[in-house]
Every structure is written in C-alpha cells, then in structure tokens.
Write a structure and sequence with these properties.
Elements (H helix, E strand, L loop, with lengths): L6 H5 L7 H15 L8 H17 L2 H10 L2 H4 L11 H12 L5 H5 L2 H8 L5 E7 L1 H6 L1 E12 L15 E2 L8 E8 L2 E8 L8 E2 L12 E12 L8 E4 L15 E7 L6 E3 L2 E8 L1 H6 L1 E7 L2 E7 L8 E4 L15 E7 L7 H13 L8 H13 L2
Parallel strand pairs: 1-9, 11-15
Antiparallel strand pairs: 2-7, 3-6, 4-5, 8-9, 10-11, 12-13, 14-15
Amino acid sequence: MARPVDFYAVLGVVRDADEADIKKAYRKLAMEHHPDRNNGDKAAEEKFKEITEAYEVLRDPDKRAAYDRYGMAGLRGGGGPQSMHFDLSEALSVFMRDFGGMGGFDAFFGGGQRSQRDRHRGQDLKVALKLTLAEVATGAQKSVRVRTLDRCSVCGGSGAKPGTKIVTCGTCRGSGEVRRNAQSIFGQFLSVSPCPTCAGEGTVVESPCERCGGDGRVKAEKTIQIDVPAGVADHHYLTLRGQGAPGPRGGPPGDLIAVLDIKEDPRFERSGDDLVYDLAVSFTQAALGAEITVPTPYGESTLRLPPGTQTGTVLRVRGKGLPHIGEGGHGDLHVRVHVWTPTKLSAEQRAVLEQLAQVESAPPAEGGGRRFWDDLKRALGI
C-alpha cells in the first residue's frame, strides 16, 4: 500500500508555515526540478508535478484546511472527477501563473511556446452547489447548468476558416518570441519578449472562422454532473479538472469549482461529524422510562429513555451522525433531553399531581446545572 503523501514534507516546510514561506520553498524546488532544466528527465518531471500539487493545496486556505483535517481524502472526496492529480501541462501552468514574470524564466529556458500555451488556458468556472443535510449524509450526484464557452463546431476550435490553414508566423518563425541583444552598463545581455505579430503563439490565422471570429470558441450552455462525497462540510469546494471553459484557439480548458452551500436542518446542530438533537419528554416518560422515536439523517431510530432521566441528560445514538469523509465510519447523534412542563392542566391532571406532591421526594439542592454541562461535554468529547 502506498504511503500517504505529506505535502509539508514535499515542500520541506513546517506545518505552521505562512504563505510566504510556502511560496519561497515551492519556487526554489520548482526551479531545481523544472523539465526545461533537466532535459526531459522523467524523475524530475514527476517531482515537479508533486511539488506543484503540494503548493496548490497549501497556498489555498480552504484546501489547506481540508487537507489538515482529512488528509488526501479531504481533497479527493473518495476519488472520481474531483481527485487531485496534476499532469505536466497543469503543473507548468501553475508555475507560469505565479512565477512567469519573475527573473525572465522563459527567456532563460527558451520556453516561449509552452508559456504562451499555458497563458491560453481557459477560465475556471465557479458555481454554488446547494445541498441538504440528507445529501451530505449519503452523498449525492448533482447537475448544474452553466453558461460557458465551447469549441467552435465550424472550425473545430482552431479559429481558422474551413478550408484554410493556420500558418507559421513570419516574424518569429514559429518560436513565439523575439530576441534582441542589448547593451547595458553591466555588459551585453539577451532580451526575450513575446512576438508582437502572433502574440507569442508562433502561428497566425490569416482567414478567421466567420462563426467564432478566429477565437475558436462560441457561447454555450451545458449541464455538468458532480459527484458529491458523503460527509462534506459547508463552504468546502470540489474541483473538476478540465470542466471549465476551453482556452482560445485550442488552448487547454480551465476547471469547474463547485462551492458547497449546505442548508441548515432545523432539527439538528452539527458539530463536525456529530449531530445534536433536542428531545422534549413528559414527566412520566422521564420518571418511568420509555422507548421514543427520534429523527436521524437516515430515517427514524428508536431511543431507550432510562427511568429517572433528568433534564440535561445527553444520550448517544452511535453511528447516526454524518460520515467521516474518506475514512469510513460515522459520527454519532447526541440527544439532549428536556423534561417538558405543561402550562395548562385539566382538573383530573391537577388532582393526580397534587396526590403525587404529597409523596414525592425533594430534588437535590445543587449541582444540577453543572451536571448538565459536564454530561454534554463528556458526550461530545470536549
């Protein structure tokens, strides 16, 4: 079995490292293992993807919180389309996004064409995904309708008019960049910049497609299926790689980011994966004991109320809380008991209670309130 990935160890930072330390560590490692510095070495390429994945998680407060709490399970959601996995193109795109303009990296390595391709990555799409507590308990498959862009069906996304071809740029001869020697007080140096004719693409569309105007994309709406793992929390999000808008003229697509919005269930309070339910019982049920039906996210469950139950007693129904995401097992349902006192009595009820008052024992003088909170803390493990 593969050992779990420790993103902090991958970047060589402590668990309480701040954003600046994480970014500094990533930049140093990325420069060391970048494919253009290692002549296509596969081991360096895999390391570059690994440190980029670690950086993308730890630099984002929400992803980092999910990782710190659930490990890789909090990011992968049990596998499926929202699993974290970087291919080389995505890893390079991340590097260029944050460090493309620092220190002339492209000029140093001569990576003009790849950098331009990465800059032509499509936009990420962000949607709010509404869930009920029942859907959180069991997991769900949701459909979202998004307004986006799609590949032009006329030109196939190339941007060129059917029957014509995209030609190599005559200015840069396909490199996507122009190089100029310049002189400074420190001596001669090489200046590299994107080609002004083709904007760094290395190709030119001489006859643009009439439908998309040469962009290679048209406006569209589409429905996307999202598999939501059981046990997710409010404001967490799922990332569907490659489900965002396509890039212009054949550029790689962005991602779809689904932010989870979980509707409160008035019956329960949520504490992590545990749920708390307030149960009102009559005096006779509390004194004599009873079997009472209580709600859970999975349907009703029977709870045995022991004789002599006091207000503030917390009873545990094991396994009826929410699933532990990616780990198996469930939290518990904690039932807080409240003995209900009637506000109106019939003559018969009053007569019975007056008879009881003559024989009942006096309540304890102190400690009731403290015992309630002690029981609650013990039940919730706090």
